[in-house]
Every structure is written in structure tokens, then in C-alpha cells.
Write the C-alpha cells for this entry.
Amino acid sequence: MDILYFLVPLSVVLVFFIIGGIWWAIYSGQFDDMEKEGERILKDG
């Protein structure tokens, strides 16, 4: 039962890191043009 005092806050912190990573990826332009990156490898070379 004592492990829950460690695991619950740890999981909350992990969720905040995941949400922060998704927020950073969206607002830094990681998902701006999904089609171009998929076609770039076909047109290379």
C-alpha cells in the first residue's frame, strides 16, 4: 500500500511530461506538413 504514495504522483508527473511533449510538438511545427515528408523519400535521388 505504501508504494501507491510513490506511484500515483509519479504517474501524474509522467502524464504532465507527455502532455508537454505533445504540446511542444504541435506548437513547434512538427505536424505542419505531413504529406511533404512522406513524398520526400520517394522523390529523393
Summary: The chain has a mean pLDDT of 87.
